[in-house]
Recover the amino acids of this structure.
């Protein structure tokens, strides 16, 4: 079995999209998880519901809402293009955004659980030593939540790698730009007599997923050693 | 140093009602477990907000529920040696001590009473500096907690059963260090215990707490101010 340059380009694009979605989500997810775990404010339940919406809504609906909001004529899309020159519509960045939104609830949940398991007595100890609340977060709470941050990243990355519905609705299925592994497999399924090509992509998908799992396992072991 | 503490707080089973006026040297807080000793220390440290309280240290009002004054714990400069040690599990002993020193250095212009090397020397911590708290014995853990609190540059030290659950031989390992803190560093401390023998001959003043009720007891023999 040999892989064509197109196949490799599809895998690289998928990895790029999933990696960007995961990395960009992390700081936002940590902030939201902190708010949900520790915040006492009006509207916390509402924030929680909004964060979880992409998990419950049909992905096509999420994709359509993204298209309306972040399309070139959407309120956020137009504003981002004017101020930052950032375009999402029918670009790989849009695929990353869709993947990030779909994986966001999974990441927030994992981080939130980890934060809730941090012993508040350790935070008290930090403040008795002179650390302000912000420093306590940065030096005690977040470092102790790292295993949760990591497993949240793995979940979000996995979700991003397999994301289909929101992506195809929001940024369509453009070869070389938004056609990730899932979308490519779907495309070849539409055309009869492509079985060999299809199998190559399926094997690639399995291999990439497996490698990602192995990498996360190794990372988890390293972090587990340092936070025990 | 003068320390004025008045606390009233309804707990589940008892009502905490403590009045303490004390100063330099060691003040012993004696009483059976569950009497409210730890709650009293938490209130002084600023980790617990009582219904009614007024806590003043050297004319600085730390807590006054009547006027709504509340100095947050990290600005009180009160060192706290917790009963459960509470060492940071993700940091080595050296980093735990460094944590105290770093934040102690940045909260006041007053120099810390003791440096890193002195603390390591005084408490005999050199052999365990590279270890994580999970790999320390009970006695080692207590000494690290004490060292970390000392390096945070406190004006007052709170000790909550610092010898609790240690065997007799390990107790003898810690007590000489405490004596040196009193005589050499002249650091005022409030020492919570249920065992009178730990503080006998050391405490300048004694407070007895029972069922949440705490008042100054008769001065002990070596009373001095």
């Amino acid at each position: 079995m040999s892989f064509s340059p197109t196949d490799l380009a599809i895998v690289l694009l998928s990895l790029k999209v999933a990696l960007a979605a995961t990395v960009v989500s992390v700081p936002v997810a940590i902030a939201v998880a902190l708010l949900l775990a520790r915040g006492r404010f009006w509207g916390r339940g509402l924030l929680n519901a909004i964060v979880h919406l992409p998990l419950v809504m049909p992905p096509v609906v999420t994709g359509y809402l993204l298209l309306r909001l972040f399309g070139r004529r959407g309120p956020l899309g137009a504003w981002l293009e004017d101020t930052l020159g950032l375009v999402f519509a029918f670009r790989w960045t849009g695929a990353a955004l869709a993947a990030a939104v779909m994986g966001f609830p999974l990441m927030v949940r994992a981080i939130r659980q980890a934060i809730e398991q941090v012993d508040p007595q350790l935070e008290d100890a930090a403040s008795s030593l002179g650390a302000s609340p912000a420093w306590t977060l940065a030096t005690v709470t977040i470092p102790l939540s790292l295993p949760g941050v990591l497993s949240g990243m793995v979940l979000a990355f996995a979700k991003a790698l397999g994301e289909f519905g929101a992506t195809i609705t929001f940024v369509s299925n453009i070869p070389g730009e938004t056609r990730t592994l899932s979308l490519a497999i779907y495309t070849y399924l539409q055309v009869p007599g492509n079985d060999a090509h299809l199998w190559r992509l399926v094997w690639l998908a399995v291999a990439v997923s497996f490698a990602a799992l192995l990498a996360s396992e190794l990372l988890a072991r390293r972090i587990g050693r340092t936070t025990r | 140093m003068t320390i004025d503490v008045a606390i009233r707080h309804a707990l589940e089973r008892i009502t905490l009602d403590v009045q303490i006026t004390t100063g330099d040297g060691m003040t012993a807080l004696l009483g059976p477990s569950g009497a409210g000793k730890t709650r009293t220390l938490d209130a002084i440290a600023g980790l617990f907000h009582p219904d009614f309280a007024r806590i003043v240290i050297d004319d600085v009002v730390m807590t006054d529920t009547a006027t709504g004054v509340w100095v947050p714990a990290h600005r009180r400069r009160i060192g706290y040696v917790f009963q459960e040690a509470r060492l940071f599990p993700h940091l080595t002993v050296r980093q735990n001590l460094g944590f105290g020193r770093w934040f102690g250095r940045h909260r006041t212009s007053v120099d810390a009473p003791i440096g890193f090397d002195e603390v390591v020397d005084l408490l005999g911590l050199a052999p365990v500096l590279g270890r994580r708290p999970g790999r320390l014995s009970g006695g080692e853990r207590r000494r690290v907690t004490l060292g970390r609190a000392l390096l945070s540059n406190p004006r007052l030290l709170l000790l909550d059963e610092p010898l609790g659950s240690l065997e007799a031989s390990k107790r003898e390992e810690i007590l000489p260090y405490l004596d040196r803190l009193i005589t050499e560093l002249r650091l005022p401390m409030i020492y919570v215990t249920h065992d009178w023998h730990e503080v006998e001959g050391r405490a300048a003043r004694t407070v007895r707490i029972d069922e949440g009720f705490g008042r100054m007891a008769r001065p002990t023999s070596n009373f001095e101010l």
